[in-house]
Each structure stands twice: as structure tokens, then as C-alpha cells.
């Protein structure tokens, strides 16, 4: 602890503790919290831990949050009690819900991991995983394909029955299917991993996360919110090209399907964007608009539609296909992205974005100019404010 204090030197630090048994000794953690509170260090801890460590006892979890331990990655594994029993996890669905509630109530980031592809799981069952994750209030989530690591009981059992189909150890990364399944092909299971990620990471998820993590009554800066979304998109893009080489098209189709399915499930629980994000200058310049951004791939189209006034965002929705009343109509051709990708840059991505040909009239062009003016001013004001406050 003394070394941390010396190294800290009043600088903001982030420390990630990767030991999943970090809370295995509650007395030690309680003492750590006392030290953190005593010295008032500007440190944010991220920790990996177990669901039952948060719920037993719940008072310790609350104390950790108040001491700056504000990001938690928990292994939920499955929304089905049978799966939890089969993997000998030692937790219940009720414990999962309670753990998330404790963390959210104390302003902490509740992140979870789920395992897909356990023997007997169906496609329809796996597709419900992200809906469950959002229902219990998770703010961040990952879905890993079950991986039988060598020298484990699981691996030995599959090996004995001749079910291991992959010996390339670089693919033992929770992103590839490695053994024969009764219900799903390896290809389908890997596409379901992409589906689950896209169905969980919706705009509503980002807004919910921003709302819980707010440290004051102030709204989140538009630039800060946008940067977080772009970081997730870039991460997904990197993972897609690195891990799904040659099969990216099928994964894009899975993602587009997930976007529409997520809209159906979230229809009654939408969060008003302008209630969470500071975007008054952006909206004032943009004015009343219906902005439509359409993602196209292989004759499949999914559109994000945002309707604004000069002071609010009336709604944001996703639809299959397009609607006809857009005042700003933008198409993104994902076929071109897949077929011509040779690197990553903002300028390269911009070449795949097109104004809809039907929208090339004077009014629509003026509306696009309004959008082009609103974006840098809205984002720039956030940047200037952050610099002034930092100085």
C-alpha cells in the first residue's frame, strides 16, 4: 500500500486486479478499504470476482464501492440454473440478480461474462442470453464460447469420447468452437457469439451505463459518450477481422439480425438520450430532423432512425429496411467494407458512407450541412469544457 501511495503522487490511477479470488479473504479486503478511505487516493480499481463474493456479505461490496473499487467483472456463465449446476458454479439465479443490484445501487460498473455452447444448449436458448443480461441490469457483458482447456475434467471427458475437433492451441481463446456439439455446428456457434454481443451492446445499454456511472447530477458530455461507443465499435472491428477471417460476411448478417431483435425487446424500456447526455448545443443547431442511417449488406438492410427537435431527442429506433420520411438519409455499404478492407482509418471508413440518392435535393443537402455543423460544435464544446476544468 505504501508503494502505491508513493507511486500515486496525487496522479489519477486505474488498477486492474485479475485474480478472480480477490475477495476470497473478506478481512483483508475490509482492511484495504480502510486504507484507501484513510489516504483518500484518486484510484479506480477494476476487479474480477465471483457472484457469491458480492452477495455474501453485501455490506463488504458496498464498502468496496465507496472506497473506489468501482468496476467488477463477474462470472455469470448462464441464465439457466441447470447449466450452473452442471458446471458446479455454486451460485443461483437469485444471487446473480442480487449481486448486480448491489453494484448498481452503489454506482459501480456491473460487468458479466457468460459461456455459450455448453452441451445441450440450443440456438434459441443462446439467443436469449443477452436479453437476460440486460434484464438483470448488467452494464457490460461478454459472451465466450465454452473452451475445454487441457488437463481439466471437461477436456478429459471430451477427449475420452473423441469429441475434440481442434488441436490448434491458438484457438483455445473462448472465441472458437473446439468440440462436437449435438445441436449446433462450430460455424453456427461462432456466429451466435457475434449475435449475442450485438444484441447486448445497444444504444440503450450505453445510456443505462452512463446513467448509473454518473458521479453527480451533471449530464455526461456528448464527446465522452461518443468516444466510449466508438471504442467498442473499433474493438469489435478488430476482433472481427482478426478472428473471423474469411467468414466475416456471415457474422455481419448475424449482427444485423441481432440489432432488430434487440429493438423488439427494448421497445418499452427506452432511455431518453437527452436526459443523460448533454447535447443542447448539438440539438439547437441540428433542429427538427429525422436522421436515418442504414447499414446494408448482401440485400439486407437495417436502419437507425433518430427524430429530434431543437431541444430533445423524441426517439431513436432500429428497423428492418428503411422508412420514407427521413430528412437526412445516410447509407453505409458493408459489402464495400468487407470486400475492400485493407487497413483501418477514419478516412477509409468515410468512403463507405453515402448520402441516399433519393435525398440529393436542396433541403436534404442543407440538413446535412446542419448535421455537419452540429457535430463538431457539440463535441468541441465538451472538449473545451473538459480542458478548462482540467486546468
Please sum up the structure shown.
With 391 residues, the protein is α/β, with parallel strands linked by helices.
Tally of contiguous helical segments: 18
Spatial order of strands in the largest sheet: 1-2-3-4-5
- β-strand percent reads 15-25%
What CATH calls the topology of the largest domain is TIM Barrel
So, the CATH homologous superfamily of the largest domain? Answer: Aldolase class I
CATH architecture descriptor of the largest domain: Alpha-Beta Barrel
Question: What's the total number of strands?
Answer: 12
Helix/strand order, N-terminal first: HEHEHHEHHEHHEHHHEHHHEHEEEEHHEH
Q: If you average the pLDDT, what whole number results?
A: 84
CA radius of gyration: 23 Å
Structural class by secondary-structure content: alpha/beta
- Overall spatial form: globular
Total tally of structural domains:
2
Which residues form runs of ≥5 with pLDDT under 50?
Answer: 342-347
Percent of residues in helices: 40-55%
- Per CATH, the class of the largest domain reads Alpha Beta
Largest sheet: 5 strands, parallel
Straight-line N-to-C gap: 29 Å
Helices and strands in order:
Blueprint (H helix, E strand, L loop, with lengths): L1 H7 L4 E5 L8 H14 L3 E7 L1 H5 L2 H9 L2 E9 L3 H6 L6 H13 L3 E8 L6 H5 L1 H7 L4 E6 L7 H8 L25 H15 L2 H11 L6 E2 H22 L4 H19 L6 H4 E2 L1 H7 L2 E9 L2 E9 L4 E8 L7 E6 H7 L5 H5 L2 E3 L6 H29 L1
Parallel strand pairs: 1-2, 2-3, 3-4, 4-5, 6-7, 8-11
Antiparallel strand pairs: 8-9, 9-10, 11-12
Helix pairs in contact: 2-4, 8-10, 10-13, 15-18
